[in-house]
């Protein structure tokens, strides 16, 4: 099964993608997580990506596409994967379609997690991410057992650099300009399914499972 998670920054793509990956035992591929890991390791790619990410801008397509295409070659992708944060522009979607068509494959679903802009800034300021394993929490909606400490690996939690309110507003603008058109793009391909992302995260998950079972 090959799934794309669509939705605004903070809509809950990562939260749902992790749950789906666990349930179906397929990899969760998040370009944002890959960039953040590169920033942490101080790689050239990380240095370049950080310049854009800190401003809430998209990393140029040419730095993203090859990275994802390479990731598909790994053995764990043979039964499918969940794409989170990729594709994010029409050229990225076209590159993905072309690469899949070349091997006689296509995406099965594009799940659009719908959350209005008004809810987003509030959600982002409460998000905390683990520096160790990348797990994400929310101080109000999904708190850890011990404040500031990851339930899964015991490492420290941080507020992401790009989750400051002014950067979030910029990311939302970039989303509407460059990523939202993908809803139409995949709509034309007949694979978009909308879910209400404002309800409890377990209810969002059940709504997605319901879609995938049809
Ligand atoms: P990326 O890491 O992909 O960020 P994003 O798309 O902005 O999305 P987020 O990760 O912020 O949100 P999410 O939808 O995953 O929400 P989450 O589940 O955490 O990208 C970061 C940057 O990298 C980009 O700005 C760009 O610069 C660059 N980049 C990445 N991919 C790229 C690409 N393909 N091309 C170019 N550039 C690229 O949830 C948010 C919070 O809400 C959490 O605290 C969570 O606990 C909580 N929450 C989740 N669901 C619910 C719910 N139902 N109710 C209440 N709270 C909830
Ligand atoms: Mg995410």
What is this structure, in a nutshell?
This protein is 48% helix and 15% strand. It has helices at residues 13-24, 31-41, 44-53, 61-72, 90-102, 117-126, 165-179, 181-188, 201-212; strands spanning 2-7, 28-30, 81-84, 109-114, 127-130, 136-138, 157-158, 192-196.
Overall description:
With 214 residues, this protein is α/β, with parallel strands linked by helices. The protein has 9 helices and 8 strands. The strands form 2 sheets. The protein has a 5-stranded parallel β-sheet, with helices on both faces. A 3-stranded antiparallel β-sheet has the order 6-5-7. Strand 5 and strand 6 form a beta hairpin. Helix 1 crosses helix 9 and helix 2 packs across helix 3. The longest helix has 15 residues. The mean pLDDT is 95. The site of BIS(adenosine)-5'-pentaphosphate (AP5) has 36 residues, from helix 1, helix 2, helix 3, helix 6 and strand 6. Magnesium ion binds next to helix 1.
